[in-house]
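User: Show me an example of a complex going from sequences to C-alpha cells.

Assistant: Sure. Here are the input components:
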Amino acid sequence: MRRFRIIIRTLIALILFSVLHYTLPQHDVVRVVNTYQERQDLGDWTRIFWSKPDDQASGLINRDVQFVQTVKKKTYLLGFIRSDAEEVMVYRNEDTGWSWPFYFKFDTASLQTEVDDLRSTPESPKWAVVTHYGWRNELISAFPNAVAIRPVAGPDVTIIPWFNIMFFLVLAVAIGFVRALWRQFRERSIDPALQDAGEAWDAVDARADEAKGRFSRWRDSWRSK
Amino acid sequence: MVAALRLIVFGFIGLSIVYVLVSLYSRSVRLEKLEEKWAEEHPNGNESDREAWLREGMEAYQKSFRPKLILLVYVVPALLVLLSIILIN
C-alpha cells in the first residue's frame, strides 16, 4: 500500500513536471542560421506537438509550417547551468491563437521577419535570445515553438525568467488559498456535522446497550441458576 | 474566432467557480470573526440576541465594499490576457 502510494505520487509529480516543462517559456541564446518552410503531415498522434491555428479547417491533414534553424549555447539543469558548448536547434514558428498553451501568439509572419533579419555567419555572429516553449524530439519530429526573439550584445547575457518567477509565486499563493479554503470548510462544516453524527451514534449505541442489557437479563432469567 | 469564444465561455465558467468559492470562504471567515467577537464581548449573552447580532453583522458585510472586491477574480485574468496579447505580439 505504501509502495503503491509512492508510485502514484511519483507519477503525478512527473506528469505535473512534464506539463510545466513543456508549457512554460524558456530562453535560449542562439545564432540564427536560416529559416525555411516545409509541408508537415498532421494525420498521426504527433499532432499534439503542432499548433492548431484558428482559421485552420478541422479536417486538414497537412499544411506549411515555418521553421527557424539556429546554433544555440548548450545549457543544463533547466537552463540554470550554462556552458560554452554549442549545439544546433530547430524551432517551429506557429501561431498559438486563443487555444492552449495560452501564449496568444498571432504574429508568426512578423516573428519570421525578425528572425530573418538576425541571420548571421559563424565569422561575425549576431547573438539573440529566443523565448520558446515545447520540446525538440528528433525521433518523432517535434519542435519547440519560438514565441519571441530579441537581439543581445553577446552570448553571456543575463536572462531573468520574470514570467516563471511570477508564475510560481502565483501558484504558491493559489495553493495556500485552496488549503485555507479547505481548512475553513472542514472547521465550519465537516467537523460540526461529524460531531453531531458522533453524538447521535453515541445515543444509538447507548440505547442498544440498554436494550441488550434488558435482553440478556431476560435470557439469563431462563438459565438455571 | 471559435477558439476565442470557447476560451471566453470556459474561462467564464472556471472563474465563476473560483468566484463562488472565494465568496463562500470570505463570508465564512467573516462569520467566524463575528462569532468570536460576540463571545468576547458578551460571555453570558442569550442565543436569540446573538443570532440577531450576527445576522446584522453579516448584512453589513454584504453591503460593504469588500465582497465587491471579489469581482477582481474576473477582472485580473482578463487584464492578464490583454497584457500578454500586447506583450507577445
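The lines above are the inputs; the final block is the predicted structure for all two components together. The interface with chain A takes residues 1-4, 6-7, 21, 25, 28-29, 31-32, 81, 84-85, 88-89 of chain B (CB under 8 Å).
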